[in-house]
């Protein structure tokens, strides 16, 4: 007997206001940079101005003369204690994992790489002293372009490795036995569409710059960090530095956004850890925005060669993908795994009978790449959704009709795909129908025809993206098969206090997602305890000793399930207590509406609070009964979950100025059962905003010497309120069959879906003039050039 | 060092400051007003927005010495002494206009500044008015809705129950998700 017999509660599914907001809207938030400790020193980091150079001379002693400076050191001085930053996901046995010192010792390999550190009484004194440090660099050849980096005579990023190739990971459905042979599919095809897409480099651009405080004075060394992954960070600090794990405490207090950008174990965290231990006093390092952009990891940066083979009736027969993925100069925590995660998503919602994928990771003299919202899945979804539109154009078919002819029907789930995943559930037909209706698809197509015929200078474009994605990272056995260095489970503990109030301890680590609210809703329903009586504790290894943190849309999908199971155990432990109090047989009790009642006599009831007081007193419990209701559960998912949706975008594209205006955007998402619709809608809005940003605005490019050209918010165009449209959202709801609440996950869906919807709409607007692609971001200049180049070719 | 006096959230402070000290650093590091945060170093993000003599300023772009003799209002002083939230704060909560909350202090102060100049802004006017404040989480849609809700509340002078205020607001962000309270 478990809490599920209470049936659906009243809290899950309700649009409750967030508990987190009270402190966030009044300025009483605990950001890491707000942490101030007695005797605390401030660090500043000297960074390389060169993209590739040998350090021939480095002297920190002049900095020591500067007022307020306590100490200064270079990489060489801490070489034996700083360790090498970890990569947890070498995707193949022969993946090249170069040494990655937090502070460069002999050689720098990208601009912004740390070369020396100053500790001073305040930040300004530390920064002043940086300018006194003497460094001589001997420039080395720089390689930035991935194809150039793979040439035989290319300059080497890591000269001891002999090549810039990090790994090559392949999948072939013929070899795996999940499908046919792509080469044969292509030679037999009636239509073959081949495209090259470029995923520009992006910067996560969370609003709170990363910040670290380390206190080495206690029995445990405590690190506060603006991180998504306090538990992984603790483990890595211990493993890399040799500090015993139980002597390290990590706290992620309020964290101001992450989007994958704080799914990292950073050089700066190790530098602060080493500095605090070396000095014996607390230290703080808070980075500037330009340091974040230069040194925090970037996202995307792939070249995608995609080929779809098909018959004239539109049915697809094969898919091949060849990928180059820019690693940057070093490997971060999961750098090599990001494009491999995408490998499972290229076939998307379509029944491809044959699939081949090959990805080569490439080192260049750039900041490392790693997870950014979606991590591999947005890249894959972009490529397939763009390519499907190109195929539709080639066939003269409506892009939604092409999709309908190829997608998995709702009665075909669970469906095992050509890339080996088993999609749990979905209803692409329902989501698409709803989206078409809200969008006014047919009417917009008619308007488009009229305006094309009239030769309007501003053309209407309609973009389609029918996507799925994989949430709930991840079944541990799958991660093991992909050579990942950890499992994918999540954990939760429920502590029932004597007064019946409840503390939920979670291994997830929210940084804007509202777990304090959503987890309270789940526990409230499971335990029959008021929403207000629940406190959610997270992000401090002292209270939450175990967890795998928040990324990959895993928190509700995995951590939420763990919480349900922990609550069920509380109810199971309370049942004999209630039976004892009611002087009945436990088997005669049912747990409904938050209380145990004897079947047939509902007037006598005992709540969880009654039981918790009874176990607190423990005066007359039966012999051998443990006087506690506290319970924990660790949940390892059996499968991923697969939310999906249909996004439609209408753009007004000015062919004379290149300006793109999003006229309307409809998103119908199916994320399974929803715990808090307000939070889900917010995630969809924000996700779509980041996907639009990739389509139209953001790009982190380098000049020929390897200097980041978008190192501030002046040059890196995070969209403002005037740059984004109002979005119409709706949901269909297909519960996840493997999840106790039926929930799937929503954190990345909007970002995955929206980029191809927008670019498809831009290309669609220009297609009558022969345009078949506009590279991202679709800036006015690029749109204008695309429109003009085809005009020119038509004239010639 | 320059001697400055400031009135911050109703409290007077006299301090000696380094001429190069930015107002935001003075607020955070000397006065302990850590509710105001720093998000960038180029005056683009607006996370540090405060009111100086009632006008919105980005406190990373004002020297502490320039603020001598001025009155500064920050997010920490916005609610009433009894804890009653300012209508903008209340609307941000009700409209889910924040996620991580890092941009929120600056966003709220910029919205207060906007509404003091334009008590009944259109959606476009809100978007233009908040153009100098970046949010990475929300896509701004709920922020725009919150600011217009707050405007309606403030125009009605007495804070009205949420249901009755939203009904009077035209052109609020459309949604077809039935369960979302509006």
UniProtKB/TrEMBL annotation, chain A:
Native species: Halostreptopolyspora alba
Keywords: Molybdenum, Oxidoreductase
Named cofactor requirement(s): Mo-molybdopterin cytosine dinucleotide
Protein name: Xanthine dehydrogenase family protein molybdopterin-binding subunit
Alphabetized GO MF terms: iron ion binding; oxidoreductase activity
Sequence ranges assigned to domain Aldehyde oxidase/xanthine dehydrogenase a/b hammerhead in this UniProt record: 26-141
InterPro entries named in the record: Ald_Oxase/Xan_DH_a/b, Ald_Oxase/Xan_DH_a/b_sf, Ald_Oxase/xanthine_DH-like, AldOxase/xan_DH_MoCoBD1, AldOxase/xan_DH_MoCoBD2, AldOxase/xan_DH_Mopterin-bd_sf
Residues spanning the membrane: none
Keyword hit for Oxidoreductase: yes
UniProtKB/TrEMBL annotation, chain B:
Stretches with biased composition (Low complexity): 166-182
Tree of life domain: Bacteria
Keywords in alphabetical order: 2Fe-2S, Iron, Iron-sulfur, Metal-binding, Oxidoreductase
Pfam families for this protein: Fer2 (PF00111), Fer2_2 (PF01799)
GO terms, molecular function: 2 iron, 2 sulfur cluster binding; metal ion binding; oxidoreductase activity
Keyword set includes Oxidoreductase: yes
Alphabetized Gene3D superfamilies for the sequence: 3.10.20.30, [2Fe-2S]-binding domain
Domain spans labelled 2Fe-2S ferredoxin-type: 2-78
InterPro entries: 2Fe-2S-bd, 2Fe-2S-bd_dom_sf, 2Fe-2S_ferredoxin-like_sf, 2Fe-2S_ferredoxin-type, Beta-grasp_dom_sf, Diverse_Oxidoreductases
Recorded metabolic or biological pathway in which this protein acts: Alkaloid degradation; nicotine degradation
Residue segments, region Disordered: 156-182
Protein name per UniProt: (2Fe-2S)-binding protein
Source organism of the structure: Halostreptopolyspora alba
